[in-house]
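Is this the right way to post structure tokens for a design question? Let me know if I should format differently. Anyway, here goes:
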């Protein structure tokens, strides 16, 4: 069975409309990465913030609502075509409302009691899915997948399974994560947070910038549109926070995605790398990509433009890839040009690169060796 990604709602640091995101992505415009003042050792750090107001109790709800508005006509059409209990929701996330809960818990530590506005929904992983369920009225299976930074890549296989097993006729699938100072400080404690603009694949790379985003696809049966062609997953469990330096888990997930799609490596036009800008990830991922694809396949990391959106990272990567295929452009790889001597050679996309792109593989690698690779295309 063939499933398509029929429509997309997407907000990130590149913009809050398709036109804005495409324009800024084409130009490698990183102006959405600006310094915020979180409590990270008293230092402001670059962060990929979304330019929308906070109006809901949880910031992740604002992000989801902004993405959902973009596809409301498609959502309404689904509800008129199918029973509500045949419409599912699968969302990847890792932070939900931890940012808000942190402030409320700090208040409790100081005053001895939680503020009235505190809700357990702030720390429940199901909360973004519950929000979407309430907004859309979809009554089919609805759940959140949380495997750190691979969360919203893994959801695409789940959504496809729901359709292939005739449980759902359509699934709202994607990911969300909002700003979270707890996560910022956690990456800082791991010496993985860059105080400068992230610099993936560079000799001078020193860590990640975080960001926030929401990306929501409508997945249905069909052949006319951008298809979900293959998904590969692996769990190498090499280390709690460090990737296997041999790239074994990443190689396994990419090969599994290719096998699932029935593709040889040369069928892939572009690789949207996980590309975090940390020393360990970039050395590992470049080795893995070079091992499977060699040096010719065009690659880029889009995280210098969006920040690393953690649980939403997989869906953000796929959303940008969906737009690349639809509008036929390439997101350039933004870095200082000093290629890392510890990185295997890759063909990094340059600004204003012109290249036909019909099939894209997206990587999302997470703590604990939870890896996912997803292929979409025409």
């Amino acid at each position: 069975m063939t499933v398509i990604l029929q429509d997309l709602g997407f907000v990130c640091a590149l913009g809050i409309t398709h036109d804005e995101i495409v324009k800024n992505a084409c130009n490698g415009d990183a102006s959405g990465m600006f310094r915020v003042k979180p409590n990270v050792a008293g230092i402001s750090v670059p962060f990929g913030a979304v330019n929308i107001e906070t109006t809901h109790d949880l910031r992740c709800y604002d992000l989801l609502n902004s993405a959902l508005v973009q596809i409301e006509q498609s959502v309404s059409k689904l509800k008129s075509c199918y029973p509500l209990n045949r419409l599912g929701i699968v969302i990847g996330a890792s932070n939900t409302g931890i940012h808000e809960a942190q402030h409320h818990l700090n208040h409790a530590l100081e005053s001895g009691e939680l503020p009235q506005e505190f809700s357990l929904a702030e720390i429940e992983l199901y909360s973004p899915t519950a929000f979407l369920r309430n907004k859309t009225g979809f009554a089919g299976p609805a759940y959140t997948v949380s495997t750190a930074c691979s969360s919203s890549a893994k959801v695409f296989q789940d959504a496809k399974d729901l359709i292939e097993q005739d449980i759902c006729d359509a699934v709202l699938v994607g990911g969300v994560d909002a700003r979270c100072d707890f996560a910022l400080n956690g990456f800082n404690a791991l010496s993985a947070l860059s105080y400068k603009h992230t610099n993936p694949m560079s000799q001078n790379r020193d860590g990640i910038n975080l960001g926030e985003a929401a990306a929501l696809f409508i997945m249905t049966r069909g052949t006319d549109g951008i298809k979900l062609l293959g998904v590969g997953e692996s769990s190498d469990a090499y280390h709690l926070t460090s990737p296997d330096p041999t790239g074994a888990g990443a190689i396994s997930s990419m090969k599994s995605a290719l096998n699932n799609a029935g593709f040889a490596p040369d069928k892939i036009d572009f690789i949207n790398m996980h590309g975090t800008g940390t020393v360990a990830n970039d050395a590992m991922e470049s080795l893995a990509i070079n091992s499977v694809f060699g040096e010719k396949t065009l690659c880029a990391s889009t995280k210098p433009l969006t920040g690393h959106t953690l649980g939403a990272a997989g869906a953000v990567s796929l959303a940008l890839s969906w737009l690349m295929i639809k509008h036929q452009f390439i997101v350039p790889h933004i870095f200082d040009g000093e290629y890392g001597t510890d990185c295997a050679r890759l063909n990094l996309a340059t600004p204003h690169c012109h290249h036909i792109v019909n099939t894209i593989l997206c990587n999302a690698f997470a703590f604990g060796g939870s890896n996912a690779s997803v292929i979409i295309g025409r």
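Format looks fine. Someone answered above. Worth noting: The chain is about 35% helix and 20% strand. The chain has one domain: 3-377.
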